[in-house]
Specification:
552 residues; mainly alpha; five-stranded mixed β-sheet; 5 strands
Length: 552
């Protein structure tokens, strides 16, 4: 009995096994980074949640994300604290900062795990159970989903509900049941309530409704065309009505504090589009839309082998769609392109923006892989084994690198306690939580704003930096973030480039005495280069490279 026969006969057991493995990989070491909690985005979310109390103050004071997830985290904490912190009452009870982070991470891992059976169902709807099992397997061992399951942010929620919306549209197209139309409206409302940029998916619902209508009528009957169009328009508005209700109920302060919402959206859109320069978007100067995220984020999120298969598979899938005229294939491509293109043509092309595309990539790959392997007969088993083993290797390598091994910042601080003098002045970078583990031991750490070295600020010039270097015996770089951007962008940051180039080559009078080591698991995860290989946020939050320099 071969592997494919086993899959066909034991798909329930295989799906259960994938759920167990996927759940373990996602929930393992969910409190990583404690008590420091280095990730800035989840700290912002937790800060918003921890300042709420019911019923007196439910204003999030934070509009970068929608309020749905913030209220979900807050009321979950409220229920958990009902018989302890809250003393049997909801009133005037808050959720502590650390608890808010852990709750947000729990939901990230929870919704990421739910994607496994959901991708199985969708694969079965698109083709058959074998495609469903393969899609579930790729989701289980997805490096991207495993990583973001450990971040208390909203990306896995967006990925889950985007996939649910696709499922609802697909089921409505197949069954014509109003239930799935209502559910798609509710899901769209949740998506927009999690992040306003999800409104890009609003086009998928009328696309499904009108495609179904045009399929059912003949253009020779004008009256039938008119009635079907009227029915389609009514159904579209009916669906949007449910979406609007969900959005209004879960985001009341968008309307109660519209000025605050408007100002926040102007700022956030300015950062994303590059019209408002901020210190944490410097890596995107000179990057090419679409190409940069394609080659600097997807190889990590998918794993390098899957990424190399994805590009030819995408064009093959387009061919299959054209040849077979399957609307559900067209809808799958539409979901992927809407999310991918809307996030990859902007200035700030962060990896997290691409996470919601992964379910559609895994479905696409599974369909193409089945179509190709179905024609290879006995040889297809070897391709399956290659896919399984490579996915397992990269998933395990990443988990060991990021969450089994000691956090790189605490490891560097432990090394420094034994090898760095405690009294002399230490110079470090601003805006990086990675320096916090050093503070308990070293009480003479001075922060310099290297981000503004190329600005017109009189406080941060090459001369003021030289003055600080003369007084400092050590330099600690808590991550590769500033160094990488300055070394790669000499034209944009000439002064910063000059300093970090001199630091690396030893021309500043400092020599490197420590850098986060990269073992075999790290080498596999980052293809031998944890600093320059991928977009910086791939590793800067969970596994940054810490460097320590000593004055000669």
């Amino acid at each position: 009995m071969n592997t494919l026969t086993l899959i066909k006969q034991n798909y329930r057991f295989i799906l259960l096994l994938l759920l167990i493995v996927g759940g373990f990989l996602r929930f393992y070491n969910l409190d990583w980074g404690s008590p420091f909690y280095f990730h800035p985005d989840e700290r912002n979310i937790a800060s918003s949640v921890s300042q709420m109390f019911f019923p007196g103050n439910l204003h999030p004071h934070f509009f970068a994300y929608g309020s749905f997830s913030l209220y979900l985290f807050y009321f979950t904490g409220l229920l958990l604290n009902l018989f302890s912190v809250c003393k049997n009452t909801f009133f005037d009870c808050s959720v502590p900062f650390e608890q808010a982070i852990l709750i947000s991470r729990f939901y990230a891992a929870f919704f990421s795990t739910l994607l496994i059976p959901l991708l199985y169902l969708l694969g079965k709807e698109l083709k058959n159970r074998e495609v469903g099992v393969l899609a579930a397997f790729l989701t289980t061992l997805s490096v991207g989903f495993i990583q973001f399951s450990h971040f208390g942010t909203v990306e896995t929620l967006l990925a889950f509900f985007s996939t649910v919306l696709f499922y609802c549209c697909l089921r409505y197209y197949k069954t014509k049941k109003t239930f799935f139309l209502i559910l798609s409206g509710l899901t769209l409302g949740v998506l927009c309530s999690i992040k306003i940029s999800s409104t890009i998916l609003v086009i998928t619902i009328p696309l499904t409704i009108f495609s179904l209508s045009f399929k059912a009528i003949s253009i020779t009957h004008i009256r039938a065309v008119f009635l079907h169009l009227l029915s389609s328009i009514t159904k579209t508005f009916f669906t949007f009505f449910f979406a609007a209700i969900v959005f209004i109920l879960t985001n009341p302060y968008v309307f109660l504090d519209f000025n605050g919402f408007r100002d926040s959206m102007r700022y956030e859109s300015g950062v994303v589009l590059g019209t408002i320069p901020v210190f944490y978007t410097g890596e995107f100067y000179g990057t090419t839309p679409v190409i940069y995220p394609l080659f600097h984020s997807f190889p990590f999120l998918l794993n390098p082998l899957l990424f190399s298969l994805f590009i030819p598979s995408f064009f093959l899938f387009l061919y299959l769609t054209y040849k077979k005229k399957h609307f559900i294939y067209q809808l799958l491509i539409c979901f992927f392109l809407l999310i991918f293109l809307s996030q990859s043509v902007v200035f700030a092309k962060w990896t997290r923006y691409l996470l919601p595309t992964l379910p559609f990539i895994y479905l696409l790959l599974s369909v193409v892989f089945f179509e190709v392997c179905h024609r290879l007969k006995e040889k297809r088993l070897y391709l399956y084994y290659l896919l399984y083993l490579s996915s397992f290797l990269f998933a395990v390598s990443y988990v060991i690198t990021a969450f089994v091994q000691e956090d790189t910042r605490t490891a560097a601080a432990s090394w420094a306690r034994k090898n760095v003098d405690h009294d002399p002045e230490i110079l470090s970078e601003m805006y990086d939580m990675g320096i916090v583990p050093f503070n308990d031991t070293f009480h003479n750490i001075q922060l310099f704003n290297f981000y503004d070295l190329d600005s017109s600020s009189p406080d941060f010039t090459p001369q003021t930096l030289r003055n600080r270097l003369e007084k400092s015996a050590y330099i600690i770089l808590p991550s590769q973030r500033v160094k990488k951007v300055r070394l790669l962008n000499e034209k944009q940051f000439p002064k910063g480039h000059a300093f970090y180039k001199d630091l690396v080559t030893g021309n500043t009078g400092f020599i490197k005495m420590y850098q986060t080591p990269c073992d075999i698991w790290c080498t596999i995860t980052y293809l031998g280069d944890p600093i320059f290989r991928y977009e910086e946020t791939v590793s800067v939050f969970d596994r940054p490279v810490v460097s320590i320099y000593k004055k000669i």
